[in-house]
Amino acid sequence: MGRFLRKIFFLAITLSIAPAFGPFASAAVAAQTKEDKAVLDELLDILKDKGHITEDKYQELKTRAKKEGAERILAGFKDWTPYLKSADGQHKVELHGRLHFDARSFEGDARKLDSKRSNDSPTRSDLLTNLLVRRARLGIDATFFKYLDFKVEGDFGEQGSSFALTDGYVELNYWPEFRVRGGQFKVPFSFEELTSSRFIDFVERSVVNNLVPARDVGGMVHGSLLGGTLDYSAGIFNGTGQNNLEKNDSKDYAGRLLVRPFKLIGIPLLQNLHLAGHMTYGDQDTGESLRGRTDARFEFFPRVPTHGDRVRYGFEVVHAYGPVGLYGEYVKTKEERDGLGTGGSNLADVDGRGWYVAGTWLLTGEEKVHGKAPKVKHNFDPRTGGLGALELVARFAKLDFDSDDPLPSPGGNEVEALTVGLNWYLSPNVRMMFNWVNNWYDNDNMTPIKGDNSSWEITSRLALWF
Prior knowledge:
mainly beta; Porin; two-stranded antiparallel sheet; 20 strands; disordered N terminus
């Protein structure tokens, strides 16, 4: 399967960049074709009005022009995205990619671990100042016959030299109110997770994201109703996560409902506000619980054995007005441990709870649109004085795990994290990110530094996408 996907990628690259070897005809091709079509229509109208051609001949020529135009293939670039499409708009293929180059630093004593402490596990070995390619993705988005969408994307980044499929699905989108999707894609749960890594406001998603499902294999129906004031999603998934084989006959059921109460009301201050709730339920049979990790991947709560149902639910509030964005989420999970106690008795459920609030402010005055890059007023250019777009960001998050029966790390399994940072958009497709994170732990036995219940992390990223 991986070899086949690689061939698709290489073919798409060849098709997409081939037109660029012409005299920079790329983006101009589509515009020129549109202009030629308009001129031809105008000439035919003049010939008919002056009586040089009959109405029948006029209609015949119009039909022939439309047919010949539909058979033409257009190529170009739109917002750095290379594409091929048919002139009639029925078919389109786009090549997308992103590269995230990260640097991580930790408090100076974070590596000075005491070998006599039983909790000094290998999970601490990555507490080093390091450079890494966090993501290196390449993907194809295609539409066939106007209503059949296709997406396949792979990651060559942090996985090493191996290829890992991220998205691979098809979708029928004949009705905006009722779309059908099948394949591997993100479970409809959580604003933070559903926002593409290209456009998240922080280097990493919050600690609350430890409780949230990401990609899985399944099917989903979704759509938008009432002029965009109500979005819904409902699906069934394996429940095993990205690129993992199904382990039992049980499935995860997921649903999400999003409301924009002021979208159609003429109150600009509130038009971008949305509220959403989501839930998943499934029988996980024998498995492992969710775990707790900080932004820079320090594990303060390891996985524990589970057996039985897993329930997740949460809600979010998201808003933006002018250059300012505000949002927050709450997520709750419950995982059963049936038959895992002494003599096959049931242990108490493992409960996870997390929440965060975040705010952003574009200092250079661009409009904040969640899930998109800002329209940079002046791209960074020292020769012309262009500064790019500057954005301040801040977030406070809390995550804890608990159970009525003992867990592997008694004494508390909670972290609070404060993140402040700066995003610098050099252009709409290039961004530099700088985050400082301070974590506070309530379990002295599960901290990066012996005898200290807090530690800091610095994460930064150079991001490029098309």
